[in-house]
């Protein structure tokens, strides 16, 4: 089933073992001088450590060998012992006496290996509905020693079915189903060798589900141009799968319930196909059979249905009759379009009358001489010919001193591929006009110049390049620079500051150089002019920034932010007005002015109490302060006469407006305000007047809180 004979490997291994065992037995029977023994036996686990001991039956010089090489040992009376470490390969150990006349030596063969793994990957298949069952399973790696596989069938009087594991860890067993009434198969597995044993199971199979039909056969195939009919042998299966495809192509699959006659459609004409089939009891039960042998056949041809791709070239020489001659070409049809083998090509020329000729493949061109004619080409196979492709033969109208461009198209299965070409001219001369240059960018060392396109009628052919001429007025030297067409821009570097130049451009064709265009005079700036231009640019930039900042500061929100920023930069300690120069110098009171500051309490219907405020002016250098008495009272429902009142006096500047009063401003007050620089001037063009409101006005009340300005959230 798997194309492998495990018996061959086992026979070879047994042969090798038999040779070594027979050799040891022979030595022992012929009167060996010693006996040898392994502490771990003749089969050990790979990489084991153990000892080999030899017991001699006579006095002699004792020696021990491993694979015919002497090794060191320990001697104890009439025996020697050697320790073996990490044994990984088959080894032969032998002991003997050194004397030549002594009897034959004794020896032992040690084989390293592995104990078996747990059996797994069990697969059971029944050949036909009444055949034997074949089971296979694996035990992992090769044990390297003789390993026995056993399979037990529940209900089978036979104890077990045995086999020997091969070198790939593969076991198998084949057995009959002894009862026709059995619907389920229950098996147990065992794998064992001298180093260990492993068991798995029980494993249960439904017999009907493991039935594998015999391999079907395709007796013969009949085909037309687009379908094939498969005839198969008789069978009782209800499901058939067909696998088919063009030779060296992709396989396709088709399932059908037909038993004997299978139809495959949508095939290509004149194509070789291969077919295979397999079968199964039905969709729900059983296994697929193996594929049948391939059957090859070829579909019939059809007449081509696609026109040929035709093109032509006019030859330079005319015929003796004066007619123009043409070379006709056409592309070969691909396999799917030809629908068969192309036998010939029909070429028909229509001038005053129709004339025909034939061309035999593989030739795909023809030579025709005619005047004012057209040609048709078609492909012919055994079933007919393709539609005729008509082409009118005419000469292009190429004008002298003109530049043409064209393209060549290659037809490919993935699509057309086009290659462009330009610069084609029948006859040309030097250009009649030169380009007009214009400066794009200029500094003290570089000049970027561009020029206009020459009118088409002045080119007189295909332009190839431009030449830029640069004349230095001081040294009267001329430099030139070459620029490939169609570029129309170039940067000249390495100019000298403060020098004057003249520039012009010419155009070239293959026939020569045209006249110079208009001149472009220019001078490079000196280093001082360059520095001055940088200063002007920098100054202009600063002025523009200031104007923008001035415009932005006209917005009230910006002014408030700016005010808060400036006040945050000043010390947070607010000075006492009583310590000012004005207050220390003028101490005499010159008069009193009393007025009332009404504090409104919405809970009281009567008029609020009056608060006395006195103004103390100073005579020679007036500096006015308001001495206020703030009233703090409870808000109970008691009458006004029973309220308790506390007064505290503070000083505030009259620069602030009192709620409910009129604003007082004069020049003397402004002079006094200069003493307190922590109050910003209200006459700044960037700020609004500072207005203080509220019933209680003290210096603590007008302290600036910068937390809102510093809070970026």
TrEMBL record:
Protein known as: Interleukin-12 receptor subunit beta-2
Topology versus the membrane: Single-pass type I membrane protein
Keywords tagged on the record: Glycoprotein, Membrane, Receptor, Repeat, Signal, Transmembrane, Transmembrane helix
Pfam short name (any one): fn3
Family from the record: Belongs to the type I cytokine receptor family. Type 2 subfamily.
Predominant localisation class: membrane
Membrane-spanning parts: 531-553
Record region (Disordered): 650-669
Places the protein is found: Membrane
CDD domains named among the record's database cross-references: FN3
Domain of life: Eukaryota
A cellular component term, taken from the record's GO annotations: plasma membrane
Span of domain Fibronectin type-III: 212-302, 431-527
């Amino acid at each position: 089933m798997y194309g492998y004979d495990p018996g061959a490997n086992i026979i070879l291994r047994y042969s090798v073992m038999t040779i070594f065992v027979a050799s040891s037995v022979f030595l022992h029977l012929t009167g060996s001088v010693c006996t040898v023994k392994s502490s771990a036996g003749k089969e050990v686990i790979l990489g084991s450590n153990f000892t080999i001991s030899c017991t001699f039956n006579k006095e002699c010089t004792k020696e021990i060998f491993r694979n015919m090489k002497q090794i060191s040992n320990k001697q104890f009376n009439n025996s020697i012992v050697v320790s073996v470490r990490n044994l990984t390969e088959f080894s032969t150990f032998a002991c003997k006496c050194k004397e030549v006349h002594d009897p034959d030596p004794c020896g032992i063969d040690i084989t390293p290996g592995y104990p078996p793994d747990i059996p797994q990957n069990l697969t059971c298949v029944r050949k036909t509905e009444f055949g034997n069952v074949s089971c296979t399973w694996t035990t992992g790696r090769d044990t390297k020693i003789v390993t026995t596989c056993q399979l037990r069938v529940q209900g089978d009087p036979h104890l077990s079915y045995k086999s020997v594991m091969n070198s790939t860890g593969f076991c198998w067993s084949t057995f009959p189903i002894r009862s026709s009434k059995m619907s389920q198969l229950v098996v147990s597995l065992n794998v064992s060798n001298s180093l260990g044993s492993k068991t798995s199971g029980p494993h249960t199979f439904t017999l009907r589900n493991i039935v594998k039909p015999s391999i079907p056969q395709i007796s013969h195939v009949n085909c037309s141009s687009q379908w094939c009919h498969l005839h198969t042998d008789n069978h009782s299966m209800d499901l058939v799968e067909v696998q088919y495809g063009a030779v060296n192509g992709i396989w396709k699959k088709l399932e059908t319930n037909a038993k004997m006659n299978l139809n495959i459609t949508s095939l290509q004409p004149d194509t070789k196909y291969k077919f295979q089939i397999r079968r199964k009891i039905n969709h729900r039960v059983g296994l697929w059979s193996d594929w049948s042998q391939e059957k090859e056949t070829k579909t019939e041809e059809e007449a081509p249905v696609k026109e040929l791709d035709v093109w032509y070239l006019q030859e330079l020489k005319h015929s003796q009759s004066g007619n123009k001659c043409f070379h006709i070409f056409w592309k070969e049809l691909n396999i799917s379009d030809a629908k068969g083998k192309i036998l010939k090509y029909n070429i028909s020329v229509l001038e005053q009358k129709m004339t025909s000729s034939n061309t035999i493949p593989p030739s795909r061109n023809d030579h025709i001489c005619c005047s004012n004619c057209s040609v048709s080409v078609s492909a012919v196979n055994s079933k007919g010919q393709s539609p005729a492709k008509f082409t009118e033969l005419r000469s292009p109208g190429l004008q002298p001193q003109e530049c043409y461009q064209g393209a060549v198209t290659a037809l490919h299965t993935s699509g057309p591929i086009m290659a462009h070409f330009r610069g084609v001219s029948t006859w040309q001369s030097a250009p009649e006009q030169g380009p007009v240059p214009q400066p794009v960018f200029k500094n003290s060392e570089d000049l970027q110049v561009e020029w206009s396109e020459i009118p088409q009628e002045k080119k007189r052919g295909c332009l190839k390049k431009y030449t830029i001429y640069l004349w230095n007025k001081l040294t009267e030297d001329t430099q030139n620079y070459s620029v490939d067409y169609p570029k129309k821009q170039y940067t000249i570097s390495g100019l000298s500051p403060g020098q004057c130049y003249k520039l012009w451009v010419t155009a070239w064709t293959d026939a020569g150089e045209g006249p110079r265009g208009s001149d472009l005079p220019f001078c490079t700036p000196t280093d001082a002019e360059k520095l001055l231009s940088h200063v002007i640019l920098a100054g202009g930039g600063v002025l523009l920034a200031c104007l923008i900042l001035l415009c932005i500061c006209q917005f009230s929100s910006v002014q408030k932010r700016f005010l808060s920023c400036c006040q945050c930069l000043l010390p947070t300690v607010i000075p006492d007005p009583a310590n000012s120069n004005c207050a220390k110098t003028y101490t005499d009171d010159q008069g009193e002015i009393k007025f009332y500051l009404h504090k409104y309490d919405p809970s009281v219907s009567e008029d609020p109490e009056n608060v006395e405020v006195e103004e103390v002016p100073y005579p020679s250098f007036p500096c006015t302060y308001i001495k206020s008495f703030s009233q703090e009272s409870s808000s109970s429902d008691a009458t006004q006469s029973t309220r308790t009142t506390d007064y505290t006096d503070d000083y505030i500047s009259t620069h602030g407006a009192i709620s409910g009063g009129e604003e007082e401003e004069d020049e003397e007050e402004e002079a006094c305000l200069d003493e307190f620089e922590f109050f910003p001037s209200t006459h700044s063009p960037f700020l609004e007047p500072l207005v203080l409101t509220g019933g209680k006005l003290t210096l603590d009340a007008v302290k600036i809180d910068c937390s809102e300005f510093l809070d970026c959230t």
